[in-house]
Amino acid sequence: MPATRWGDPAYATGLPDGVRDLVSLVFPIADRPAREDVTVPAPRLGDEQIAGLRGIVGDDHVVLDDATRRRRTRGKSTPDLLRQRSGDLSDAPDVVVRPASHDEVVAVLGYAQEQRIAVVPFGGGTAVTGGLVADLASGDLTGMLSLDLGRMRGLLGIDTVSSTATLEPGLRGPEAEALLAAHGLMLGHFPQSFEYATIGGFAATRSSGQSSAGYGRFDKMVVALRVATPAGEVRLGASPSNASGPDLREIFLGSEGAFGVITEVTVRVRPLPEVKEYEGWRWSSFAAGADAMRALAQSDLLPTVLRLSDENETMINLADPSGIGGEGNAGCLMITGYEGTPAAVAAKKAAVTAALTELGGTPAGSEPGEAWAHGRFNAPYLRDSLLDNGVLVETLETVTFWSNRENLYTRVKTALEETLGEGTLVLCHVSHVYATGCSLYFTVAAPGGEDPLAKWLPAKAAACEAIVAAGASITHHHAVGTDHKPYLTAEIGEVGVDVLRAVKRAVDPAGILNPGVLIP
Amino acid sequence: MPATRWGDPAYATGLPDGVRDLVSLVFPIADRPAREDVTVPAPRLGDEQIAGLRGIVGDDHVVLDDATRRRRTRGKSTPDLLRQRSGDLSDAPDVVVRPASHDEVVAVLGYAQEQRIAVVPFGGGTAVTGGLVADLASGDLTGMLSLDLGRMRGLLGIDTVSSTATLEPGLRGPEAEALLAAHGLMLGHFPQSFEYATIGGFAATRSSGQSSAGYGRFDKMVVALRVATPAGEVRLGASPSNASGPDLREIFLGSEGAFGVITEVTVRVRPLPEVKEYEGWRWSSFAAGADAMRALAQSDLLPTVLRLSDENETMINLADPSGIGGEGNAGCLMITGYEGTPAAVAAKKAAVTAALTELGGTPAGSEPGEAWAHGRFNAPYLRDSLLDNGVLVETLETVTFWSNRENLYTRVKTALEETLGEGTLVLCHVSHVYATGCSLYFTVAAPGGEDPLAKWLPAKAAACEAIVAAGASITHHHAVGTDHKPYLTAEIGEVGVDVLRAVKRAVDPAGILNPGVLIP
């Protein structure tokens, strides 16, 4: 199983001329050195510990070589890439352990607890908020093992009557979809990390995909979970919804590996769509387009895909140079997508078209929609080329209620522009909507300067503080990790944090699971 | 504020002739003595403690008289009514305390913690699973106060842009709807307890209403909560959905007063519907009707109301004598209801009608639908008259995935029939559907015999054991209380129970909140 190729020079997408030209309007593109070939620190685990782990999963699945450890170091945020480029591999795991089953996960957790080894569950490695960085100091731990779930990639069962499927956590997005497609079924979860990220990771981080308007967030697709914790196994989800006390599924969803290792996920599935149609709409302003999205969401009339770029993103369209930022731009571009049976697509499209026309939108035809669909997973590849060219580029996201959308947008944009200074481009889109609110997804580009990491970190902090000051959530779908941890208390309060700590003590009394992640 | 009138002789509905005739076909109706006028036990709290509570909420809002204490004793399950009728008021609270604000709730909790007094939050008093019975022995407690939230009945704010409203917990269903209707808005939560049950109770028990197909369960309507716990205040819900770790709203929803007192609930609201249309459909069998419901749910094509009675309920229609069990019955009756704008209702009705026709349903016109809508809140009144006539009648409910529906139905029905013996009538309906499953709501009637309570309890236990054996949830919307507590471990596991205990210790270290409820 290859590690994710985001950040891997072999898979970097060359900077398209169009983007190069547009970016060069704003700041000069410089040549940057390629990342150094550096070695990882010496493993902290002893031979006996390695032998113990080999006894559980087999010799072949306890991996110690530098290349594997390097690929399991941190995730794929821009700071992660910059640290890797600068040769800082201080967060490398001591060993990569690849269990094949729930029972092997249980055994590894038991051994790690006994030996006081930190366990960092690893799926696709696409974490962008520092969720793969263990803090050994916090718990008197002797080392860190990366628990690679890549051997647990089965489709364990399909219930066609209930429209559910049970999946193993190591399945990547395309693998899960291919297994389901063989039965005429689909999960319908397409985050930008789709190609690499895994079912377990989607659940552990409350991922949300590009078809969330039609198919919902990943956490809403989950009906049952099996979790291995150091305190024992947890099986949750005897029914779709119930009144059997607090919904404990919602405690393990979003737990980011700190409460247990998710070993099975049962999700709602759907028939494969017979028809897929994507199209564009043009709006006079970001606010006008957002108001239209709100009207659709509040009348429960949502297409499968619904996205809106702000004026800057519509103009530059850094995230997808091939498509929607084409000629004749003015105002803001919205993408609407419809998937399903021909009859359902026709009915929904007619109703949405009538509503958007009434609200003042201008149809922009199918070309922008198809272009978006074609390039939807490309942005992270492009980022590597931008970094190569001295452009600092990163994304961040948040979510709030509709009445706070404009305030949040202005605060975050201003914070980024003011902190990063001249030449900064802030782009934004809305790609996830609810009846009561929406996400805001920002892409930031700025000249990297001598030390891009030192330049970015204060900007990220300023953006986070702006989100907190606006009363919004610190993350819509990137999760907390270590990067957002300092801001979680403001969102859930001291008592909320105490509840998380109490749950942690109950399921992981020795504190071996992803120490330092999530919980302040 | 009157206590709920279910079980109050003054508000009992006389047994309609039609029901009397139908019931007498099955078992003879006997005359039963009216409940005795009994006195409540002497209060266990001392004068100093009463004075302390008066100092917080004022003299007028610390109520000690027998009538008030009697009305706050237990809830409204049939066992609750039977115990009350038999003169057993051993679970009466020592005092009823009526705070006017979040801050007064906080102060009462602080005082109760200091004095080791159990606190049982009280909303509408419509609990049917023993959720209002405190177990003082478990925590070395000196007495029990009923925390009546009836003075906290404000509409604290409306956000018309985000379509949310913030409500106080003591608002009864009709009061909340009336306050919202003044703004052209609606919550749309209509459980059978609608007339008495409160916003706080809906949240604390994960209530689900008769329009759940269109408007969702109550827990899905909630976007934010304010909770007073002995450990401090919790405010949750910075956004509709997010990835800021576990969703702690889902820990306080369904917490049944054991984790804190919900003092504010922010919910999604909707425009008042311009049109409401209800109609009937007839199906050859319960299975055929249920398959049709499943098809609608799995194609995301749900009307606002969707209910299906099994053959027995269609025939007898004990739950609503005035309507749907009319002449010419054969097979099973389904009710479909549509609410919204004229255009939306017409479009949805056309699509659902086409689907149900294709699936083999026979339209039964608007009469059964309107009859259902007219009598929808009447069943609990009728129950009192049945009890007066020596008929033991009770309801229970569960929820499972679609593929397990028939197994669950057969197991529970058989368990009830076998335990209660000859002359037992078991009726069932499906009134809440999901893409992946549905609820089953049973109404049971049997001759009461000499000791109806002694007759019922083994039947309830057998039904619960059947639910557990079928792998379903012990409750879809009645909550856990004390009645379902013995079965919760089977559903969420030992580790799940440990998580609940850990949360309890974090938010209520002295164990004063609803002791003995919910947590095994």
UniProtKB/TrEMBL annotation, chains A, B:
Coiled coil: none annotated. The record marks 307 as: Important for enzyme activity. The keyword Flavoprotein applies. Pfam families: FAD-oxidase_C (PF02913), FAD_binding_4 (PF01565). Substrate binds at residue 383. InterPro entries: Alkyl-DHAP_Synthase (IPR025650), FAD-bd_oxidored_4_C (IPR004113), FAD-bd_PCMH (IPR016166), FAD-bd_PCMH-like_sf (IPR036318), FAD-bd_PCMH_sub2 (IPR016169), FAD-linked_Oxase-like_C (IPR016164), Oxid_FAD_bind_N (IPR006094), Vanillyl_alc_oxidase_C-sub2 (IPR016171). It comes from the Bacteria. Belongs to the FAD-binding oxidoreductase/transferase type 4 family. The active site is at residue 441. This is FAD-binding oxidoreductase. GO terms for biological process: lipid biosynthetic process. Residues 89-272 form the FAD-binding PCMH-type domain. Residues 68-87 are annotated as: Disordered. Its cofactor is FAD. GO terms for molecular function: alkylglycerone-phosphate synthase activity; FAD binding. It comes from Nocardioides albidus. Keywords: FAD, Flavoprotein. FAD binds at residues 205-208, 256-262.
